[in-house]
């Protein structure tokens, strides 16, 4: 969790920093890497590794790539496949990583590389922007789990800020489950049966949750645990969890574990609140 957690609300991004809005046709939507993310050291490390891998692989063809955006765009390296991406670095990175993982599974691709993205849509009412955080490479648990450390510190050293953090989460949760006519007032008790958590994930991730897959009104601890396990599986499959979770802790109403789960969703979707 970010040290300045209470100040995480993202300010609107000036469109002139993106420099691509003039090329967007009405009705078109395009996702770009925000300029501030181009200075991310992990992103630079990833780009250099991919360039080195391409050059090593194509050495016999006497092809040398120096820039992912420029050298792959002309179709020489990946021919017509990348030509449709119009120098889109984000799509290029996703595609190259998929190719690299397929043909060289042992390639040491750095994990946890993420960028801030901005999606620009030219609507009849003008330009509409939406920011988000997107992982480019696999999420893996770090030796130093920053999320866990931050919440440990919050509970042990800054209990006076705990209520403020709860209110931030409650506002975030109710903004989304409120669309279903639900209202959450107590994080500790209302997430224990997994129902609110599943419905929140469904709202945010766009899942259609079949009522036969979970217990809408669980009548036992076993049914509650089933719901929470399903929620954890969905979060894991969606790449939102980078730490292990004991579902029983959530069923027991463990506040710290529940808040860590909520933070995984909040950190991805907080920008959509504006």
Compile the SSE list and pairings.
Elements: H1 15-18, E1 29-33, H2 41-57, H3 68-71, H4 80-83, H5 89-103, E2 114-123, E3 126-135, H6 146-157, H7 162-177, H8 187-190, H9 195-205, H10 221-237, H11 247-251, H12 255-269
Antiparallel strand pairs: 1-2, 2-3
Spell out the key features of this protein.
single chain; 274 residues; mainly alpha; Actin-binding Protein, T-fimbrin, domain 1; 3 strands; 45% helix; elongated
What does this structure look like?
- The protein has 274 residues and is mainly α.
- The protein has two domains: 5-135, no CATH class; 146-273, Orthogonal Bundle (Actin-binding Protein, T-fimbrin, domain 1).
- It has helices at residues 15-18, 41-57, 68-71, 80-83, 89-103, 146-157, 162-177, 187-190, 195-205, 221-237, 247-251, 255-269, and strands at residues 29-33, 114-123, 126-135.
- It has a three-stranded antiparallel beta sheet.
- Helix 6 crosses helix 12 and helix 7 (162-177) packs across helix 12.
- Residues 3-18 and 142-148 have low confidence and may be disordered.
């Amino acid at each position: 969790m970010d040290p300045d957690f209470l100040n995480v609300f993202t300010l609107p991004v000036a469109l002139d920093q993106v420099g691509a809005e003039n090329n967007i046709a009405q009705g078109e939507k395009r996702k770009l890497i925000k300029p501030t993310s181009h200075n991310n050291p992990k992103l630079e490390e990833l780009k250099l590794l991919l360039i080195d891998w391409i050059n090593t692989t194509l050495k016999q063809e006497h092809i040398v790539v120096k820039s992912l955006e420029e050298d792959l765009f002309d179709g020489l390296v990946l021919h017509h496949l990348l030509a449709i991406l119009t120098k889109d670095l984000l799509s290029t990175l996703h595609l190259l990583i998929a190719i690299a993982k397929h043909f060289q599974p042992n390639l040491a691709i750095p994990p946890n590389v993420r960028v801030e993205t901005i999606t620009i849509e030219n609507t009849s009412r003008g330009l509409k922007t939406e920011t988000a955080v997107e992982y480019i490479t696999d999420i893996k648990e770090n030796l130093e789990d920053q999320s866990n450390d931050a919440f440990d510190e919050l509970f042990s050293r800054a209990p006076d800020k705990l209520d403020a953090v709860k209110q931030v989460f409650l506002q975030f949760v109710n903004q989304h489950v409120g669309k279903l006519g639900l209202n959450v007032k107590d994080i500790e008790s209302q997430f224990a049966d997994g129902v609110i958590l599943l419905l929140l994930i469904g709202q945010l991730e766009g899942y259609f949750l079949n009522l036969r897959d979970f217990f809408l009104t669980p009548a036992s601890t076993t049914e509650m645990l089933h719901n929470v396990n399903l929620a954890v599986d969905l979060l894991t499959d969606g790449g939102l969890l980078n730490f292990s979770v004991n579902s029983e802790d959530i069923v027991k109403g463990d506040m710290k574990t529940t808040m860590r789960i909520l933070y995984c969703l909040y950190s991805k979707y907080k920008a959509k609140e504006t």
